[in-house]
# Entry
Amino acid sequence: MLALAAIFTISLSAQNPQRSGGGNNFDRSQFTPERRAERLAEQLGLSAEQKAQVTELYKAQAERREKNRNSDLSPEARREHFETMRKTEDAELEKIIGKEKMELYLKQRAEREQRFREGGGNRQRNN
# Structure
């Protein structure tokens, strides 16, 4: 019986590698500043110049976040700090991509956040 349970578990993991290991297969390499800028450029149709500026912005953000990662802030203070950083970074991004594209970006981000809150994470929808 135990062997059957083990085989069943292994077969499920093999069929759905995204969920194996407790579903915690976070790959930071997908979120490099360069990849983030590339993705944004594709989604919003950014020019090469805008993409380069966004890449530099994302590199600066990554450096700031790395410095803040090891801070001794309380969870509430960390959340406040994150929100302040996000507003500042959004303002910097809007200067680069313009108001119209920023509105589209914010709409897409809100949709991603809603899917995440609903338990969908970043999985593709079958609709």
In short: Residues 29-112 form one domain. The CA atoms of residues 42 and 51 lie 9 Å apart. The chain has five helices and no strands. The helical segments are 2-15, 33-44, 48-69, 75-97, 99-117.
